[in-house]
Each structure stands twice: as structure tokens, then as C-alpha cells.
Write a structure and sequence with these properties.
With 199 residues, this protein is mainly alpha-helical. The chain is 85% helix and 0% strand. The protein has helices spanning 2-17, 34-66, 69-89, 91-98, 102-119, 121-134, 138-196. Helix 2 (34-66) crosses helix 6, helix 4 packs across helix 5 and helix 5 runs parallel beside helix 7. The longest helix is centred in the C-terminal third of the chain and has 59 residues, at 138-196.
Length: 199
């Protein structure tokens, strides 16, 4: 997170230096201004706390459901599927929000099915991941994701050069499906071991 934030700050400052209106002005933030910080905190803290409460509640609910492996999987895949149906039904309107370029709209429309295929396994991955977390086996997910996404990173440029944008989405779909299967297998194996282990 530190590296990411530093890179973002450096990039922002580079771009700000190219804005004519800021020519010659210092980009150094200067001394802290407590009244401004207080104004920002008045909005930011309650907003962040709201998200924290929501995330905590949903996380606890997920852990509760995660104890029943099949139910968790069904809920995760159903939610992802429902989102995909909404996206397909509102496709023209949603794409229009992001671009009015007919060429871009056409390309996105042609790839939408593939994009959804690559996202649907997310529900299964999330369900298995929460289930492993409920069994206190988060390291299994860490190893799976590290290997899966490392393979994606290594393959993305050759795939792009050979197959273009569609190839990238096929690669993402392949990794997500593989991770969903691996996470489910690992959860089933881990849960059997935990159940059979003596108390």
C-alpha cells in the first residue's frame, strides 16, 4: 500500500506540473490546516465508519454461512449470476454511461459475455475463501491466489500480443475458473480433515 500510494502521488505530481494554470506554483502541500482537516474529517470519518460497519456485518454473516459449504457456494454464485443478468439486461444503457464512441461500444458489447464468464467464478472463489477463513485456514487461499495470479501476470503480455483484448479476458476467465475449482477442492479436503480430527 505504501508503494502504491507513493507511485500515485508521484504520478499525480508529474501530471500537475504539466497543467498551465499551475505553472510556477509550488505543489508542496504546506503546513497542516486544522480547520480544513476538521471539515474533511466531519465527512470522511462517518462515511468510512459506515462502510466499516457494513463490511463487518457482511463479514460476520459470511462467516456464519461459510460453515455450511454448499449454502455458501450457492449464495456466492447466485449473487454473481444475478449481477450478470442485470448487466446483460441493461447493457446498452450501462455501456453508454462510460463511452459514446460507437467503436468502443461495439467492442465492449462483443466482449461482455466473456467478461461475465470471467467474473462468475468470483462468487465460488469468495464462498470457498470465506469457508477456509471460517476454518482458520486462510493460508491456503493465499497460496492459491499467489500462484494463480502470478501465472496470470506472467501470461498477460504474450496473450495480449497474440490474441488481443479477447485473449486477456479468456486468460482472466481461465485463472478465475481454476482458482474457484482449487479453492472448492481445498475447502472440501480441509473441512473433512477438521471434522475427522479429534477434539
Amino acid at each position: 500500500m505504501v508503494v502504491s500510494s507513493t507511485a500515485s502521488a508521484v504520478q499525480a505530481n508529474i501530471h500537475l506540473r504539466n497543467v498551465p494554470a499551475l505553472s510556477g506554483a509550488s505543489l508542496w502541500p504546506g503546513r497542516p490546516r486544522p480547520p480544513k482537516i476538521k471539515d474533511l474529517a466531519r465527512v470522511g470519518v462517518p462515511s468510512s465508519a459506515t462502510l466499516l460497519v457494513k463490511a463487518l456485518a457482511l463479514g460476520l454473516a459470511s462467516l456464519g454461512v461459510a460453515r455450511i459449504a454448499r449454502t455458501s457456494l450457492l449464495v456466492g454464485v447466485s449473487v454473481a449470476g444475478a449481477g450478470a443478468c442485470v448487466l446483460l439486461a441493461a447493457k446498452p444503457w450501462i455501456i453508454g454511461v462510460f463511452t459514446s464512441d460507437p467503436a468502443v461500444r461495439g467492442e465492449v458489447s462483443s466482449l461482455l459475455g466473456l467478461m461475465i464468464l470471467s467474473v462468475l467464478p468470483e462468487g465460488a472463489k469468495a464462498a470457498s475463501g470465506r469457508s477456509l477463513l471460517a476454518l482458520k485456514e486462510a493460508r491456503v487461499s493465499l497460496v492459491n491466489f499467489a500462484v494463480g495470479y502470478a501465472l496470470l501476470v506472467l501470461s498477460i503480455l504474450p496473450v495480449r500480443d497474440r490474441f488481443g483484448l479477447a485473449g486477456i479476458w479468456w486468460a482472466i476467465a481461465a485463472v478465475n475458473v481454476s482458482l474457484a475449482i482449487k479453492q472448492t477442492i481445498d475447502f472440501r479436503r480441509t473441512s473433512r480433515v477438521k471434522i475427522q480430527a479429534p477434539a
